[in-house]
Amino acid sequence: MENRTDKNSYTIIFAIAMVLVVGSLLAFTAASLKPTIAENERMEKQQNILYAMGVNDNDEGSANFISTDKVAGEFSKYIKKQLVIENGIASENDQAYLIDVKKEQTKAKSGEARILPLFIGEKDGKTFYIAPIRGKGLWDAIWAYVAMDENMVVQGAYFDHKGETPGLGANIKQRFFMDDFIGEHLLDASGNFKGITVAKGNADPKNLDKTDNEVDAIAGATITGDGVTAMIKKDLKLYWPYFKTLKK
Amino acid sequence: MGLLSKKDANLILDPLADNNPITIQVLGICSALAITAELKASIVMAVSVLFVLGIGNVVISLMRNIIPSKIRIIVQLVVVAALVIIVDQVLKAYAYELSKTLSVFVGLIITNCIIMGRFEAFALGNGPWRSFLDGIGNAAGYGLILIIVGFFRELLGSGTLLGFKVLGDPIEKTGLYAIGYENNGFMLLSPMALIVVGIIIWIQRSRNKALIED
């Protein structure tokens, strides 16, 4: 006896019904949760920016953002200016932190002019210049917020990733990796942009030499580390002309 | 066991040892290699798979009489993908911090062969309650191996457990490192997971000769 479910007509109807049901279920979930998710992402950006300039709830070993109920207040307290740099000209824009760096990079690739967001924060009398950067790790996107002083010396950094290997590449968002960047110089001795290389075996595991433009790599995460190097060299270099204008 | 009949209890207990999905059926090896460099990641993956396989098995079992056999694999894939994506979206909206920890695992869960394997081999032919037990049992067997492998890889590779420096500080040279101990960086790389799984298989089969195939 042929089973009812073996018929072609049944199979096709089942497939269509399944696609409709699952499709609308997913669309409904995505649409109804979208505002909440967008709000979470917006707060996360503010948390990331504040984290880079040292406004965070870090304890001894782990990286903690300031809580979401405080973030809006702290953001307006510490972030004094939000700049958008277009063709070398900086103008203020208080929504600059919402700029999608990924979209701007795509624009630059297709030859269009891209804009660079830069956030200027002040804490304990010190000025921080915080830039968002984005690149590629082993599996997917990686990105970071890097806080610098006017000499392009890193004051703090927050790294994150979409899908790096847990326990290996995913460790770029761990304190031991991010904290290595603090104090590291992006310019070389003669003042030219050199970036920071995530280096294997640089004989400086405690990262005492802050002017060698190198931090210690994570074992087993070579490609993610190379991605971090490339992202810093490429994206932060775009901000170099702006920092040169600060010197005048 | 008063709560479960002996047959039902075996659905949970068998996959923990003599019918373990990783060491006996050799399924789910890909994720066992990928994410066991740290104990914490192993535990997160084990709990996620427990959740997805438990619920997925019930859903497939409830649908088992209406799924057309010609496209059953696609249907299984759609069910597990939809389940995982909906959970991911809900977590993103209401438990954002947790969702960031888990997002890396989403792709690994959908493509985990244990999940497809249990749908195909068990849930399509059994009722929802037994399928649920089978899902929980297999996920627990999978998780057990993951946690054992994660324990040794993190301990020997990084000298830490769940991020705590149990062997001392390798840079400051305290604890074991003071007497010349070094972390084995090779433990952090995927091939060592395969070797650790191999050692588990070896121990298991040497203790239970019935598992050795001719």
TrEMBL record, chain B:
<dbReference type="GO" id="GO:0012505">
    <property type="term" value="C:endomembrane system"/>
</dbReference>
<keyword id="KW-1278">Translocase</keyword>
<feature type="transmembrane region" description="Helical">
    <location>
        <begin position="185"/>
        <end position="203"/>
    </location>
</feature>
<feature type="transmembrane region" description="Helical">
    <location>
        <begin position="131"/>
        <end position="152"/>
    </location>
</feature>
<keyword id="KW-1133">Transmembrane helix</keyword>
<feature type="transmembrane region" description="Helical">
    <location>
        <begin position="74"/>
        <end position="95"/>
    </location>
</feature>
<keyword id="KW-0813">Transport</keyword>
<keyword id="KW-0830">Ubiquinone</keyword>
<dbReference type="Pfam" id="PF02508">
    <property type="entry name" value="Rnf-Nqr"/>
</dbReference>
<dbReference type="InterPro" id="IPR011292">
    <property type="entry name" value="NqrD"/>
</dbReference>
<keyword id="KW-0739">Sodium transport</keyword>
<comment type="function">
    <text>NQR complex catalyzes the reduction of ubiquinone-1 to ubiquinol by two successive reactions, coupled with the transport of Na(+) ions from the cytoplasm to the periplasm. NqrA to NqrE are probably involved in the second step, the conversion of ubisemiquinone to ubiquinol.</text>
</comment>
<keyword id="KW-0812">Transmembrane</keyword>
<keyword id="KW-0472">Membrane</keyword>
<keyword id="KW-0520">NAD</keyword>
<protein>
    <recommendedName>
        <fullName>Na(+)-translocating NADH-quinone reductase subunit D</fullName>
        <ecNumber>7.2.1.1</ecNumber>
    </recommendedName>
</protein>
<keyword id="KW-0997">Cell inner membrane</keyword>
<keyword id="KW-0406">Ion transport</keyword>
<dbReference type="InterPro" id="IPR003667">
    <property type="entry name" value="NqrDE/RnfAE"/>
</dbReference>
<comment type="similarity">
    <text>Belongs to the NqrDE/RnfAE family.</text>
</comment>
<comment type="subunit">
    <text>Composed of six subunits; NqrA, NqrB, NqrC, NqrD, NqrE and NqrF.</text>
</comment>
<keyword id="KW-1003">Cell membrane</keyword>
<dbReference type="GO" id="GO:0016655">
    <property type="term" value="F:oxidoreductase activity, acting on NAD(P)H, quinone or similar compound as acceptor"/>
</dbReference>
<dbReference type="GO" id="GO:0006814">
    <property type="term" value="P:sodium ion transport"/>
</dbReference>
<keyword id="KW-0915">Sodium</keyword>
<feature type="transmembrane region" description="Helical">
    <location>
        <begin position="101"/>
        <end position="119"/>
    </location>
</feature>
<feature type="transmembrane region" description="Helical">
    <location>
        <begin position="41"/>
        <end position="62"/>
    </location>
</feature>
<dbReference type="GO" id="GO:0005886">
    <property type="term" value="C:plasma membrane"/>
</dbReference>
